[in-house]
Amino acid sequence: MTQTLMMALMASAIATLLIVPLTKKVPKGELTNKQLLNSIISVLIASFIIGFAIIYITKIDLHWTIFAYALPVVALLGALLSKGVEQTFKGFLFLASLLLLAYMLCAPFFNADEKYDSAQMEEKVEIEPFDETQTPASVPPRFAQNKMKKAFGQVPNTSYYELGSLQIQKVNGEYVYIAPVEFSGLFKWFNGKTTPGYFTMSATDSTDNPKFVETEMTYVPSAFFNKNLERHIRLEYPTLIFYGDPQLEVDDEGKPFYIRSYGEFISARNGFDVKGIVMVDAGSGDSEVLKLEEIPEFIDGAVSPESVSLQNSYFGKYIHGFWNSLFGKKDVKIPSDEGTEANVSPIFNENGEMYYFTDFTSPKEGVDSMLGYSLTDARTGESTYYTGNLEESYMDSQGALDIIEKKFIEKEWQGEMPILYNFYGEASWLAPVLDSNGFLQNYFIVSAANPEISAYGTTPNEALKQYKTALNRGGGTVDGTSNSEEATISGDVVRVYKERVGDYTVVSFLLNTGQNFVVSSQNAPLAIYLQEGDRVAITYYATEELFLPIKEIRIEGIVNP
Question: Fewest C-beta atoms under 10 Å: which of 15, 86, 311, 469?
């Protein structure tokens, strides 16, 4: 806070020098020494109070460019109150400050190329195949938030608090949602002083129940005056440029920290390029500035989702400059707004590293074709743009949500948080399906290239199982993981289980070899006749799953058409 006070004092001193006529000459005569001294003291005190109040209330940064907005007013006032050479000098200063202000306001018209360069992405064709033995982090945040609200009775003095924003992160190797408990108003903060802790819930298991973790937090976004988190950060670091809301991160011992991304303007006071974070101990308020390469291992989302969304817009809009983004729109790509956090969706790869996912579509209205998609490393800010198979036209995230809505139109269920995966070599959208009350009903998977191929199940892995059989009988291909191969086997059926799914039957069975297999009657209609004791010859995909997908099956004694 000392730095903020010093900078406010310096700014008020400069304002005083510009406003008070130091030559004593004024339009109505000349000031006495006493009048001049009183004027200097009065203007200094008044400008300091006004300036510090503006900083304290608005939490605006004190980067030097902010003074370009105040300088014309101060210089004009000084020119009007003085005479002679001093008036001429302050008049020229006023004109110069107007030119500087014009430059600041016009920055978006000429820095589009710089913005695009700051958002450059490595280009690839397709993401690596998803390991089907794993479970995607696919519990939608709205569902997790609903469950946390129902568990809010675990919070002491419940009436003082409300649930804060959700963040997803990895804690002790598990993917979880974290949601802080926040104050519900000024008087509740005055009475409570601290919040009692935060909720945590699995991001992969929808049956998991929220757990309340007790740990007092003093510096939170919903606190007031100097305990308000954003004000606390601003008073400590008055010149830093922030973009995005503070986010809660907890270490592997459960200790809460708030982080906020800082960076630099692209030019003037326009644009943003992330450089690091400020990390604040939510309990003590101790803080430190860390560059991106210095952040602790437990922090997953160092780069704010808001800054990633901004960089995506630079990359999509300004490929050929500012004016092309408005008129010609050649090669322009529009980032999707279907993300769960600031139009992007956080996901984790097989190594447990967090990325922000965004798909890009055409600026032309009524077109649901995807032009590509990006993944941004949430710790480093480095991005990769995937073009997809250029020989195929991929459906965008909105198109996937439209298919889900039509599929469950009678029940009025809707999809949420669509994420593009490479399932079995097929670009595929996975989206949780929620009812009108926000409760999870199932998981829906649809091919991005072949929308007629889709499946759903009560869990992500069950949906994957059904999707594999749908790919077998549809226009898609099942490649499994990157190392799966076709294999053949013959044997006797020991156990059979048949399950009706939609218009077809899924047949799961155990061979005397000890292996389990699954096939749909969509792909093999005669599989509905399979029974214990039958002799079968199978061509299947040698994945590492418990139930291996079948490509072809021949049942001894049953004639295939």
Answer: 86
Contacts of 479 (CB under 8 A, 6+ apart): 129, 424, 425, 426
Answer positive or negative: Cα dihedral of 342, 340, 117, 328: negative
Tens digits of residue pLDDT in 281-331: 999 999 999 999 999 999 999 999 999 999 999 999 999 999 999 998 999
pLDDT at 483 over 50: no
Contact 267, 107 (CB under 8 A): yes
Measured between alpha carbons, how far is 245 from 223 in angstroms, rounded to an integer?
Answer: 15
Report the chain's C-alpha Rg in angstroms. 31
Q: How far apart are CA 366 and CA 89, in angstroms?
A: 58
Alpha-carbon span 117 to 426, nearest angstrom: 32
User: What are phi and psi for residue 211, nearest 5 degrees?
Assistant: -120, 135
Residue 222: alpha-carbon gap to chain centroid: 21
Q: Find out whether 263 and 274 touch, Cβ atoms under 8 Å.
A: yes
Q: What is the mean pLDDT of residues 456-482?
A: 69
Residue recorded with tokens 């004009």: 76
End-to-end CA gap in the chain: 82
Give the whole-angstrom CA distance, residue 205 versus residue 175. 9
- Listed in order, strand segments (DSSP E) in 437-560 are 440-447, 454-457, 486-501, 504-511, 516-520, 535-541, 547-555
The band of 251, judged by pLDDT with boundaries at 50, 70 and 90, is very high
Cα angle 189-192-195, degrees, rounded to a multiple of 5:
85
Task: Give the count of beta carbons closer than 10 Å to the beta carbon of residue 53.
Answer: 11
Of 345, 449, 462, nearest to 400 (Cα)?
Answer: 449
What pLDDT was estimated at residue 128?
A: 80
Q: How far is CA 311 from CA 159, 317, 335, in A?
A: 40, 10, 10
∠ CA 211-212-214, nearest 5°, is: 145
Question: CA separation (Å) from 475 to 128, 129, 376, 387, 523?
Answer: 21, 18, 31, 21, 11
Q: Is 406 helix (H, G, I), strand (E, B) or coil?
A: helix
The number of CA neighbours under 13 Å toward the Cβ of 453 is: 27
**What gap in Å lies between CA 535 and CA 427, rounded to an integer?**
36
Of 132-141, 421-430, 504-513, minimum mean pLDDT range: 132-141
Report d(CA 450, CA 282) in Å as an integer.
48
Distance CA 504, CA 498 (A): 10
Which amino acid would we find at residue 319? I
* Proportion of the chain above pLDDT 70, given as a percent: 96
The strand pairing partners of 518, in sequence order, are 508, 549
